[in-house]
Design goal:
Elements (H helix, E strand, L loop, with lengths): L5 H12 L2 E2 H8 L4 H10 L3 E10 L5 E11 L8
Antiparallel strand pairs: 1-3, 2-3
Helix pairs in contact: 1-3
Length: 80
Amino acid sequence: MVKTTQTEKIRRYMLENGSITAVDAMREFGCMRLAARIDEMIKGGEDIRKTMVADRNRYGETVHYARYSLATPVQMKLPI
């Protein structure tokens, strides 16, 4: 049985959902280092867009986080 890597799972998630945040990655895949996985994807040839989002946390404070999306999905060495 071939194990799917976090990077492959994240790529598939981005294709299906349009974008991903660190909270999404942690909740869906237990990935604590989304930026590292995104870096692997960039080095593999993906064109990734990073958008900084401002939102409010449960205490009403403004917080900022990154939302990553595929600019143009290309075939990598990762299966879909």
